[in-house]
Amino acid sequence: MAAKHGLEGLTKVVALEAAAHGVTADCVNPAYVRTQLVEGQLAV
Prior knowledge:
Blueprint: H1 2-18, H2 36-39
């Protein structure tokens, strides 16, 4: 989760900094991997 948040935060900063130059930024995060740790975080 922290890595995804880092990617999203970086994308927001890049988007804000580059907007003045007509540049846009997109972020594509991979889906979660269903592990025992993730199972406890999923809504039933």
